[in-house]
Amino acid sequence: MIRPISVVFAALLLVAGCGRSTLAPEPALESQGSTQSAGVTGSSGGGAGRGGVTRLPLHNVVSAPVPLAVGTLVPVVDPTPEWYELANHDVEAGVTRSVSGGRWELIFRPGSVGNTTEVSISCWDDKVLECELGPHGTQFGAPVELRIRYDDTRADPTCSDFDGTQPAFFWFDDARGVWVELPGVDDRQQKTYVVQLTHFSRYVLGGKAGW
């Protein structure tokens, strides 16, 4: 997989199964601003997703983050790979509900959705940490917790080739055509990365060196 390399920084691709390392772009610092909260609860289409108008502030941006993977990362020539569902479940309003598929787990709490919503988790390879959460563009009244297991990847501290690289999480802002980094919590003991989502989009768990 060929990726453009930033002339200033480089992020380390974490190919799982304790495999080899490749360089990928590291985010350049962009404009700073306060986080904009989601405004529509349980609606599909409207904001930070495909074709929406809500604009989150740009912080760290990359052109094409490379996801962590288990085993050999299969190159994707087509930038819009074919997705298939790992999970599809209804989430009711006012309840706590977990939806999981593969290495991804979503935890909904009261206030996240305003009505029953059919939630899906899709990927193009269940061993590659890139997913599409649907309905694409759905925004939440209360954050939805996303937990991603990265065991057996090069981000795993127990891996023999672990080199100190830490996970980094990105969502694709298709209204602007950029990948934007979202902050999260790295649980090293559980080998899980945890992030709070205010909307559904396309996501990647990649990594950067030297953190």
Amount of beta strand = 35-45%
Distance between the termini: 24 Å
CATH architecture assignment: Sandwich
Number of H- or I-type helical stretches: 0
Which runs of at least 5 residues are low in confidence (pLDDT < 50)? 1-53
> Which CATH top level class fits?
Mainly Beta
* H and E string: EEEEEEEEEEEEEEE
Structural class: mainly beta
Major sheet, described briefly? 8 strands, antiparallel
**Estimated radius of gyration:** 16 Å
Based on DSSP secondary structure assignment, what is the total number of beta strands? 15
Determine the CATH topology: Chondroitinase Ac, Chain A, domain 3
Number of domains: 1
Globular, elongated, flat, extended or rod-shaped: what is the shape?
globular
Round the mean pLDDT to the nearest integer and report it.
75
User: Going across the major beta sheet, what is the strand order?
Assistant: 3-4-12-11-15-9-8-5
Helix content: under 10%
What topology emerges from the helices and strands here?
Elements: E1 10-14, E2 21-25, E3 28-29, E4 60-62, E5 84-91, E6 97-101, E7 104-108, E8 117-123, E9 130-134, E10 139-149, E11 166-173, E12 178-182, E13 185-187, E14 192-199, E15 202-208
Antiparallel strand pairs: 1-2, 3-4, 4-12, 5-8, 6-7, 7-10, 8-9, 9-15, 10-14, 11-12, 11-15, 13-14
